[in-house]
Specification:
The protein has 2 domains: about 1-40, no CATH class; about 40-190, Ferritin, core subunit, four-helix bundle (Ferritin), CATH 1.20.1260. The protein has about 190 residues and is mostly helical. Helix content is about 70%, strand content about 0%. The chain is elongated and about 70 Å long. The chain has helices at about 10-15, 20-30, 45-70, 75-105, 115-120, 130-155, 160-190. Helix 3 (about 45-70) runs antiparallel to helix 4 (about 75-105), helix 3 (about 45-70) packs across helix 5 (about 115-120) and helix 4 (about 75-105) packs antiparallel against helix 7.
Length: about 190
C-alpha cells in the first residue's frame, strides 16, 4: 500500500512511491533534522548559502529604502517616500521568510552587519535626489529579480518549499520594479 496513488508520468522516480511503513521508519530516523528528511533532494549547504545571500540582499534593500524614505525631499517626494516605506516593509517581510526557511533547513541566518554588504547581491547606493533614489532602487530590484530567477532555476524541483517561497518573493520584487519604473517616469516628466 502506498501513501499516494501512483502517477502516470514517464519518470520512474516519480512513479515509484514509498510505502507507508518505509515513510514511517524514515520519519523516525534523524528526527533532530526537523523538516529536512533523508529524501531532501537539494544540496542543503548550497541552498543555505544562496538563502543567506538573499537575506543579506533583502536587509541591504530595507536599509536603503528606509534611508530614502527619510531623505526624500521636494515637491515630488511624497509619493516616492510612501513607496520607499512600503517597499522597506515588504523587503523586511521577505528577510523574515528567508531567515525562517534557513532555520527550517538546519542553518543559521547570517545577519552579521559587517558582512551584509559583501554578501548582498544589490549594492547600497544612495541617490542625492528623489529621481536618483528611485533609479538606484530600481537597479537593486532588477538585480534581485535576476538573482531570484537564477536561484529558482538552480533549486528546481529539489526543494519545492524553498522554490515556492522564492517565487512569491520574486513576484513582489517584480511589482516593486514596476512601481519604481512608474515613479521614475513621473519624476522625469516634472
Amino acid at each position: 500500500m502506498s501513501a499516494i496513488p501512483q502517477g502516470t508520468g514517464n519518470n520512474q522516480n516519480h512513479n515509484q512511491l514509498t510505502d507507508v511503513q518505509t515513510l514511517r521508519e524514515q520519519a523516525r530516523r534523524h528526527i533532530e533534522e526537523g523538516a529536512v528528511t533523508e529524501n531532501y533532494g537539494a544540496n542543503r549547504e548550497k541552498v543555505l548559502q544562496l538563502l543567506n545571500e538573499a537575506l543579506a540582499t533583502e536587509m541591504v534593500c530595507v536599509l536603503r529604502y528606509r534611508h530614502n524614505y527619510y531623505m526624500a525631499k521636494g515637491p515630488e517626494s511624497k509619493a516616492a517616500a510612501d513607496e520607499f516605506l512600503e517597499h522597506a516593509t515588504e523587503e523586511l517581510q521577505h528577510a523574515d521568510q528567508i531567515a525562517e526557511r534557513i532555520v527550517q533547513l538546519g542553518g543559521e541566518p547570517d545577519l552579521d552587519p559587517s558582512g551584509l554588504k559583501a554578501r548582498s547581491h544589490a549594492e547600497y547606493r544612495i541617490g542625492k535626489t528623489v529621481q536618483e533614489m528611485i533609479r538606484e532602487n530600481l537597479v537593486a530590484e532588477r538585480i534581485a529579480i535576476d538573482s531570484y530567477r537564477e536561484m529558482i532555476q538552480y533549486i528546481g524541483d529539489s526543494d519545492p518549499t524553498t522554490r515556492r517561497m522564492l517565487e512569491e518573493i520574486l513576484a513582489t520584487e517584480e511589482e516593486h520594479a514596476d512601481d519604481l519604473a512608474d515613479l521614475l517616469q513621473g519624476a522625469m516628466k516634472q
